[in-house]
Amino acid sequence: RVKLAYFQGDQRTEAGLQRRKGLLSAFSRYPNIELACVETFEWASPVFAFPQGVAMTQRVLAEHQDLDAIICANDEGALGVNAALREAGLRGKVHVSGFDGMPEAITALSTGDLDVTARQPLDTMASLTLDLATGLVTGEIRTVVHYAQDVDLVTLANVAEASIRALRVFPEVTADLNRRTMEQRNSVAFL
Predict the structure, then answer these.
(1) Beta partners for 40?
(2) Alpha-carbon distance 47 to 131, whole Å?
(3) Contacts of 149 (CB under 8 A, 6+ apart)
(4) How much is the pTM?
(5) What is the rounded CA–CA span in Å between residue 27 and residue 183?
(6) On the CB side of 19, how many CA atoms lie within 13 Å of its CA?
(7) 8-13: long-range contacts (C-beta < 8 A, 24 or more apart)?
């Protein structure tokens, strides 16, 4: 029997609710999984998810030293979980998953400090958002009800591909930063 903890997303948000719903749906297909406990990230908190992940892990380990895995609803929290597990001497014994596919999580995957993350294809999401917004403005789309977006699981087996995909955004970010720097310089020179 597999014993795990779920560090869910903020239940006041749609993302937190949907991630929980998806996980619970998966549990129904795997009767050999025991959900030992649930903790909740407070995404609106001024305390970032990393220290929340550390604190939740320390609380959970005080009661459940025999966990097999901790599933996190965000990567930053998963990295906090790793820090707490490392401090407790349990990193590598307790598997950790994150969600978002943040560059820091991809790096942690490549070094063995994270087992899996669910990467959101932000490029696809942005494109869909622009298409929907344009359609609403032009009247081609009258109502947006709900769009489900698949995620990609990133593991050590495909971390290189995920890294390259994440790097594709940097030329645009760099160009945007350069453009903004020039605008600021021109504004200062004008004043």
Answers:
(1) 8
(2) 35
(3) 120, 121, 124, 125, 128
(4) 0.76
(5) 52
(6) 26
(7) 8/38, 8/39, 8/40, 8/41, 8/73, 9/40, 9/41, 9/43, 9/73, 9/74, 9/99, 10/40, 10/41, 10/42, 10/43, 10/44, 11/40, 12/44, 13/43
- Provide the residue-wise pLDDT of the chain in tens; the chain has 191 residues: 999 999 998 888 888 888 899 888 888 899 899 999 999 998 888 778 899 999 999 999 999 999 999 999 999 999 999 999 999 999 999 999 999 888 889 889 888 889 999 887 767 777 778 888 888 889 888 887 676 777 788 888 888 887 777 666 666 767 777 787 888 888 766 66
Q: Look at residues 68, 15, 79 and name the one whose alpha carbon lies nearest to residue 44.
A: 15
DSSP 50-109: HHHHHHHHHHHHHH-TT-SEEEESSHHHHHHHHHHHHHTT-BTTBEEEEEE--HHHHHHH
Count H helices, E strands: the chain?
A: 7, 6
Give dist(CA 64, CA 6) in Å, integer: 12
Contact 68, 4 (CB under 8 A): yes
